[in-house]
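In the previous lecture we treated proteins in isolation. Real proteins rarely work alone, and many bind small molecules. This record shows how such a complex is specified: first the sequence, then the SMILES for zinc ion.
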Amino acid sequence: MQTQKSRPGAGTASATTSRSNDNPIDAVLHRLEKVKSTGPGKWIALCPAHDDKRPSLSIKEAEDGCALLKCWTGCGAAEIVSALGLSLADLFPGDRRSLHQHGTAPMRRPFDYRDALQGISHEATVARLIVSAINRGDDVDADALDRLALAEERIDDALRAAGGVQ
Ligand SMILES: [Zn+2]
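The predicted 3D structure, ligand included, written as tokens:
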């Protein structure tokens, strides 16, 4: 039960960063220009990834604290974050721990299906964002690939917490 599967290529890339990632939305908003609030948890701003004259980037804070970015002219999330000096992993809260630190830490107390499904849905969103960046041919950094491995690991954790595979 406790043994970690080995994952070639994953696990060392970003272990040492001291940057905290508690508030992805702030990190993103601080770096953007002409930020305007358009409602609770929603903003528009100039897209840093193309020559934007009127704000065409919409920013949304998801319930779980993820920063969701959408440029209406079609810039990819990876292009946008790299134009901001960030990485895709910076869009997700508390995700800068390395895979090793994450390890097989038990999930929160008694098993809660809603909690687990919410977590899996979050991981699926993360995976979709990263995969769609890859699909677009965006430059995907090692952090993003690490994050993808972490998504798999968290889903495994949820399964384990639910009693594991029979
Ligand atoms: Zn754009």
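Summary for your notes: The chain has one domain: 24-161. The first strand starts at residue 36 and ends at 39.
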